[in-house]
Amino acid sequence: MLYTNATIVTVDASRRIITDGAIRVVEDTINDIGKAETLESLYPDDEKYDLSGRIIVPGLISTHMHTAQTLLRGTADDLELVSWLCERIWVLQGNFTAEDGYAAARLSIGEMLKSGTTCFLESMFADRYGFDGLCRAVEESGIRGCLGKIVMDIAKYAQDDAWAMHPGLVEDRQTSLLGTVKMWEKWNGAANDRIRVWFGARTPGGVSDALYKEMTSISKEKGIPITMHCAEVKADRDFFASVDHTPMSYCDSVGLLGDATVLVHMVHLDDSDIKLLSASGTHVAHCPTSNAKLASGICRVPELQQAGVNIGLGTDGAPCNNTCDLLQEMKLAAIIHKGISQDPTVVPAESVLEMATINGAKALGLDDRIGSLEKGKKADFVAIDVRGIHTQPWFNPVSAVVYTATGHDVDTVVVDGKVVVQNGALLTMDEEEIVREAKRRSKEVVERAGLGLKVQPRWPVE
């Protein structure tokens, strides 16, 4: 197949942009890329897919996502994190069934695909949500998923006993750590290697030192990567101080630092933490919308970039973002650091597109196959329609993608060489059925949790 007549932002080593470009796909791989005129003359018998008026970018990669939480969109707005988590989200998630988890995964994946995300890192999927169902949803949909199954053995947040988990979410070593290894043995590499299984460790304070050390040992032995929330809120800093550590000195002490680890949020860091991150090759997932909405603070992205730390981008969950649209996340990531630093030159659009593509691929250990558009890499890419009144005119395609486009402008999505979204419509999933099921199940979860009166508009409804 020849995808022709688009402006192609390759994000390759030279960062070249090809006008009137084309991509040749053979099976699941990019076979050739260049000027449309040249490729059409070289491959005259190939079927053509015209993408005039579109900008093609590598498939977007979300390095932090909670698929279960999309079923809870809008249930916990305008609350600070610990209240948000302990009194609302954990209570709701503690009432999930495996069928709810499957419905939530399909809703999340459908939204991600339609808005241009072709690969995601699920951070902390609980056993009760049904890990098999999550893998099935990835397999059926055609998306690429790195799936973190929760690891924990302490049922509270940080150091305060009042911040206890809902009983329905509590897991032990057998269910969480050993259960993840079982799922890795069953699912890792499935669906033409679109599925990778990860350890999804709970935030420090939710895992004993002994279990962290056992997990990091297994991680190195078997090659199972790790993702973990870290240094998100002040309560996390207080926990680290209580054990005589900074965030990264603690992570180092239990073996968490390294190039197979993605640490998420990373808001409350010392300069010494940034040095440890840089030296260890540990990756960071930046989630500006979640951090801003929950008033957690803002990650020190400019300083991390200066230190050479690899930074990906994530939407986090729908209750603390309200969307899985990584294009919207890109815009905030490019803007928020300018406002904080009062320097309009920091974190330019090009840096943000790298976060959402090649940096994300590197964080997931997949940069040899995805994250840029090059011969021999997997055919994962997104065509964004920029012909509309709200996207015209444009002069720099990177600027148009980062500052102007949203997920609603995504026209075509290709993953592993297969068209999964065409003309903005899902091809691999029944969108109407997914929405119907999600609406029904979300209401059931809220009622089961006894939160029907709390999850309501604040203003009077007649």
TrEMBL record:
Which terms in the Gene Ontology molecular function aspect does this entry carry? deaminase activity; hydrolase activity, acting on carbon-nitrogen (but not peptide) bonds, in cyclic amidines; metal ion binding
Taking the record's annotation, the residue ranges forming a coiled coil are: none
**Which Gene3D superfamilies does the entry mention?**
Metal-dependent hydrolases, Urease, subunit C, domain 1
Q: Which UniProt keywords apply?
A: Hydrolase, Metal-binding, Zinc
User: From what superkingdom does this record's organism come?
Assistant: Eukaryota
Using the record's annotation, list all stretches that form the Amidohydrolase-related domain: 55-420
Asked if the Swiss-Prot or TrEMBL record annotates the protein with the keyword Zinc, the reply is: yes
Protein name per its UniProtKB record: Amidohydrolase-related domain-containing protein
Q: Which organism is it from?
A: Penicillium olsonii
